Amino acid sequence: MPYIEPQAVIEARKMDLLTYLKNYEPQELVKISGDTYATKSHDSLKISNGKWMWWSHGIGGYTALDYLIKVQGYNFVEAVEVIVGRCAVAPPVYDSEKKREKKPLQLPKHSSSNDVIIRYLRGRGIDDKIVNYCIDNGLMYESLPYHNLVFLGLDGDKKPQYAGYRSTGAVRIMGECSGSDKAYSFRLADSKCFTVHLFECPIDLLSYATLLKYKGKNPFMTNLVSLAGVYSPAKNIEKSKLPTTLRNYLNEHPETKRIYTHFDNDLAGTLATRAMKTLLESRFEVIDFPAPCGKDFNVYLCIYSGIIRNRNYERNFER
């Protein structure tokens, strides 16, 4: 095996994938929304918050080195040589070196009615009273010109600090509005109980709230929080950082004692739950509570309420 200077390996491991592609393969980058990117060669490979995940293969990582080995097929030595060689020709510019000012939240225009999003959520099995509560309390609205569903995250003064949108039509489009602060993602209720329930996305959160209502429980008497996306821990779980949303929530709610994770029934959900348990079990009771069947809680809700009646439900109702 060829010898590589240890310092070269250290330098190669420093580079994240987004920096590598921006500097050396910009033609590969496809901007999805905000700071989220895909690649032209692999459209299921997503890059966000310093991490990347190749969803169709269930693998991910942080560094360009991991990408070159796991995705491009280089061996370790070749991957290091590619990175170091390109850095020697053109030293990279890291986004992290640029001081960024907080951008104001850019919200889409409001539609004159919320009829489209109410109809859309009803089709996903979400209870009308829960939907109306969210609309009346400024947690969601219908936007123009595309009639997207916009989920809002509010700060302590009830001012929007986060906005995520998803299409209500047949084409699956979703993203975050410019200036969104993930510390304030969409959440339902803000009770003083000692428990918080975590979800990957608002639709799953609303589905769980609907199921609580079906079972005769008050969904507003607990704390339901969306993490505004899939949580991807580090390869070495002990070095993982908690999602910004959860860190902010726990700072605001020091009384919290119990955390439920309601992540998807897939590899990413399993890894996220494992990381949560590793990072939090010394301070909190962490309980894994995925949907009893189906990919996620919205699929389970649709089965439970009879919206889905065939064995192909997951194909038809994937988020």
What does this protein structure show overall?
The protein has 319 residues and is of the alpha+beta class. It folds into two domains: 6-97, Zinc finger, CHC2-typedomain (DNA Primase, Chain A), CATH 3.90.580; 111-316, Dna Topoisomerase Vi A Subunit, Chain: A, domain 2 (3-Layer(aba) Sandwich), CATH 3.40.1360. The chain is built from eleven helices and 15 strands. It has helices spanning 6-14, 17-24, 64-70, 76-89, 115-123, 128-136, 202-214, 244-252, 267-280, 297-304, 313-316; strands at residues 29-33, 36-39, 45-48, 51-54, 59-61, 109-110, 140-144, 149-154, 160-166, 174-176, 187-188, 195-199, 223-226, 258-261, 285-288. The strands form three sheets. The protein has a five-stranded antiparallel beta sheet, covered by helices on one side. A five-stranded antiparallel beta sheet has the order 6-7-8-9-10. Strands 11-13-12-14-15 form a five-stranded mixed beta sheet, with helices on both faces. α1 packs across α4, α3 (64-70) packs across α4 and α7 packs parallel to α10 (297-304). It is globular, with a radius of gyration of 21 Å. It starts with 5 loop residues before the first helix and ends with a helix.
CATH topology of the largest domain: Dna Topoisomerase Vi A Subunit, Chain: A, domain 2
Query: What is the beta-strand fraction?
Result: 15-25%
Helix run count: 11
CATH architecture of the largest domain: 3-Layer(aba) Sandwich
Rg from Cα: 21 Å
Amino- and carboxy-terminal Cα gap: 45 Å
Shape descriptor reads globular
H-E order:
HHEEEEEHHEHHEEEEEEHEHEHEHH
Secondary structural class: alpha+beta
